[in-house]
Amino acid sequence: MKVAGRVAIVTGGGGGIGGALAEELAAHGARVVVADLDVAGAQTVADKINAAAAGFAVAAGADVSDTACIRGLIALAEQRFGPVDLYFANAGTVGVPGLEASEADWDRSIDVNLRAHIRAAQLLIPGWVERGEGYFVSTASAAGLLTQIGSATYSVTKHAAVGFAEWLAISYGDHGVRVSCLCPMGVNTELLYAGEKSGDPRGVAATRAVTSAGEVLEPAQIARDVLAAVDEERFLILPHATVLDMFRQKATDYDRWLRGMRRLQSRVDRSMESPES
Fold first, then answer.
1. Which of 59, 101, 113, 212 could disulfide-link 96, Cβ–Cβ 3.0 to 4.6 Å?
2. Above 70 in pLDDT, residue 164?
3. 8 Å CB contact between 215 and 242
4. Taking a C-beta distance cutoff of 8 angstroms, is the pair 141, 184 a contact?
């Protein structure tokens, strides 16, 4: 799909990957609704876009785990620009490290990292099928293909996001709906460093596990990779090439991969005991 002239909604658009996606889409001629819980952040991104191309973006404050808020974003897009062609389910939350995450912690992670995607798809895909085209882009994570040291809530919900994106692609791919799933490792965003800033040694260790696993990429590079995948209508987007190698190793010998991950977990545990090591 060529994005020029298309209408897109980007959630989590107030910065990081979402902000970069919104800017890249607008630079290629799309009209963009920039949605974020942080309405000031969303407005900053929209203002930057409109400074270059007036009228290409509008900001909205929204909790995109709420069906009513998603419906409002779709209505805003239709009012300002026209029917929605692309939806970037990019908003996410890191969650709480450890098995003791509460029911509320699990509910929040499931709502933001998974149900937000489901609810958006339920609202958009019937219309896309009727029109014969539409594009859903899910921001998951390398953790959704591999795992995440520290946070079960993040790892499990990102696995689920990948699974839901796969199901959408299989179920609606022959009805004009295209689906891509973004699975990066470390990206230079606030989300990556949230664990490190939490003060929880497990959060610090989890951040270190990601930053030590490979290059930390800039959001602008991720956005370029995503638009290239949309242009090719390619499902899996892996900005870090090493993720594919790891995923293949996991599939080839699951038990060996688990042993390797336990060794990584042991190193993380030791780093918690000796923070300067």
1. 101
2. yes
3. no
4. yes
- β-partners of residue 60 are 35
| Rounded Cα distance, 222 and 16, in Å | 10
Q: Rounded CA gap, 9 and 86, in Å?
A: 6
Neighbours of 183 (CB within 10 A): 25
Q: State pLDDT tens for residues 172-202.
A: 999 999 999 999 998 888 776 666 666 666 6
Strand 7-11 with 31-36, pairing: parallel
Which are the catalytic amino acids?
A: 154
Distance (Å, rounded) from C-alpha 255 to C-alpha 34? 43
**Tokens (6 digits) for 45:** 């991104």
Cα distances from 88 to residues 20, 32, 74, 80, in angstroms, run 12, 10, 12, 18
CA distances from 190 to 45, 76, 219, 225, 269 (A): 16, 27, 11, 20, 23
| Cβ burial, residue 270 (10 Å; 0-12/13-18/19+) | exposed
- pTM for the predicted model, two decimal places: 0.92
Measured in degrees and rounded to the nearest 5, phi and psi for residue 242 equal -65, -20
CA distance 252 to 89: 30
Helix ranges restricted to H, 6-115: 16-27, 39-52, 67-80, 103-110
Stated length of the chain: 277
The answer to whether residue 68 scores a pLDDT higher than 60 is yes
